[in-house]
Every structure is written in structure tokens, then in C-alpha cells.
Amino acid sequence: MRNNLHSVRDLVRWRDEVVRLEQRRGDGVCPLGELAELLAHGDEAGRSAVRAGIAACESLLAGGLARIRESGELAADADPERLATGLMAALQGGLLLARTTRDVRRLEVALDTALGYVRAHAVTL
Fold first, then answer.
1. Are 64 and 58 spatial neighbours (Cβ–Cβ below 8 Å)?
2. Which of 8, 9, 80, 98 is the most exposed place for a label (fewest CB within 10 A)?
């Protein structure tokens, strides 16, 4: 995930790219989910590495959402960290559903729902 989120339109492009990548994969494997599951009962160093990876992705989203808020596209009281957590939850949950059912539409629905929540914080011009 690159650090180039500057608008809600950029978030939609991110969503579209995630869905495209998932459509191409089609193997039903969620690498981060599998790694997290393997390490859940493993050593603390492994769990820390997974937590750090998730935190890094969430931080990039939060930074982008903060830029979107600073540009005036999101309300001043929008919480970038909270919105980023919602997007990450939708991403991971959507990937799990899509990969276990082999139906990428479930990922689309999860991300669209999270983007709807972000848009609920949009400033109407």
C-alpha cells in the first residue's frame, strides 16, 4: 500500500485495486490471515511482527485519511484512526469471506460498506 491517499476518490481507486488483485489471485489463500493464525498460539516475536504489519497498513490509511480531512473533504471531527480501523476490518474480513467462499463480491461489499462510512463524514460542497 503506497502513501498516496489524498481524496475520497483515491480511496475508491484503492478499493478498486484491492478487488482487482483479489480477482487475479483466486487461490482462496489469505497470507496475512494464515500467518496470523499460525502465530496466534506461537511465539511472541511472530505475533509482534504480524501486529506491526497490520499497524503499518492501518497507519498508512490513517495518514491518508488525515490528509483528506486536512484538505476539507472530510469533516473536521472525522477521526482518521477510527476510519482506518474500519477500513482495515473491512479489508481483512472481506478478504476472508471472499477467499473462503471464492466470491470476490463479498470483498466488494465489505469495502463499499466501509467507504460508505467514510463518505458519511464527507463535507458537502
1. no
2. 9
Q: What are the DSSP calls for 87-111, one per residue?
A: HHHHHHHHHHHHHHHT-THHHHHHH
Q: How confident is the model at residue 59 (pLDDT cuts 50, 70, 90)?
A: very high
pTM: 0.84
Which residues lie closer than 8 Å to 42 by C-beta, 6 or more apart?
A: none
Nine-digit cell string for 105? 463480491
The whole-angstrom distance between residue 9's C-alpha and the CA centroid of its chain comes to: 15
> DSSP letter at 6?
-
The DSSP result for 12-36, as a single string, is: HHHHHHHHHHHHHH-S---HHHHHH
What are the helix and strand counts (H, E) for the chain?
5, 0
* Cα distance between residue 82 and residue 65, in whole Å: 10
**38 CB burial (10 A radius; 0-12, 13-18, 19+):** exposed
Q: Take residue 116 and report the three cell numbers written for it.
A: 460508505
